[in-house]
Amino acid sequence: MSKKVLVLGEVREGVLRNVSFEAIAAAKKIASGGEVIGVLIGDEIQTNGTEMIQYGADRVIAVEHPHLNKYTSDGFSQAFLAVYEQEKPEAVVFGHTALGKDLSPKIASKLASGLISDVTGIEGEGNDALFIRPIYSGKAFEKVKTKEGLLFFTVRPNNITPLEQDSNRSGDVSLLSVEITNLRTVITEVVRKVSEGVDLSEAKVVVAGGRGVKSAEGFGPLQELANLLGGAVGASRGACDADYCDYSLQIGQTGKVVTPDLYIAVGISGAIQHMAGMSNSKIIVAINKDPEANIFKVADYGIVGDLFDVIPMLIAEIKQLKV
Ligand code: FAD
User: Fold this and answer.
1) 310 within ligand 1 shell (Cβ under 6 A)
2) Please, which pLDDT band fits residue 195 given cuts at 50, 70 and 90?
3) Is 260 in the pocket of ligand 1 (CB under 6 A)?
4) Membrane spanning segments where (predicted)?
5) Cα 231 vs. chain centroid, distance in angstroms?
């Protein structure tokens, strides 16, 4: 049976995040020929609707309000629920991002619905869809199926392949007027600790440093390598605790979960809490001077050596390839 599916598009600094396109691809599978409706919430975000359509949404509903120019769970939940009430979909998809993790449980509970969070793959389609999600910090995967009611799930960034962008696709982008009231928080300013470069949670390449990097300056060459590969720098908690870098870069059980195409672990031992945040990366390269380091158990390629020798060699080699 075909379904009507709502997909939340996430806009940051005027740009739709990739996970929105991945969520549309997931929604298409579930819709099984039904309608996929993009939802945009913010202030002056309607123009992003065209891109959602080019990535597969059939139409887009934008809720614009000055109170929605920065994310608050009160404001965004009022806006999303208004769209939900108008459309009465059978399924809802969000990205499993900081915003999605905050908003989805609130909306699911308001709708008395279940929530399948952190989906990394979908087998089958429509009513037969099986949702794959990690459990026990990524040590195992479960397959979940819903029996009845609203199907509400979040997709982990970088796991579901988006559809090809088709600039010839067209569809309606409409505005829905919603009264936003009773905001318990007003965000006056957002100060990003890491303001430049590729977003760590969506990066296709992550170069992560650990305590083995030995200093904040030691992260310089890692940043250079990441820049050369078009990626982002991450870190173990060991490196953050030692003050080599900011906690916003921490990857792991109590940090960010990343699934890049290439993860380069540099001077990281491979503690279970770290692996919970990166073991699903498509290709893992580990650089460690200890051949017994745990990280080699999950690595596709291992380099046993001193990172202070290996990283400059890699940088020089990649620069050579680029000329
Ligand atoms: P270490 O374990 O000290 O490893 C450093 C590695 O660098 C060693 O393997 C060493 O051989 C190698 N090395 C040293 N010098 C060189 C060199 N010159 N060249 C090459 N290799 C070198 N950790 C996380 O990362 N993320 C989390 O989210 C997280 N959450 C946690 C939650 C809880 C509740 C707890 C208890 C712990 C958590 N931890 C987390 C901490 C985790 O247990 C480890 O302590 C931490 O991951 C270790 O960081 P590390 O690998 O950088 O340091």
Assistant:
1) no
2) low
3) no
4) none
5) 15
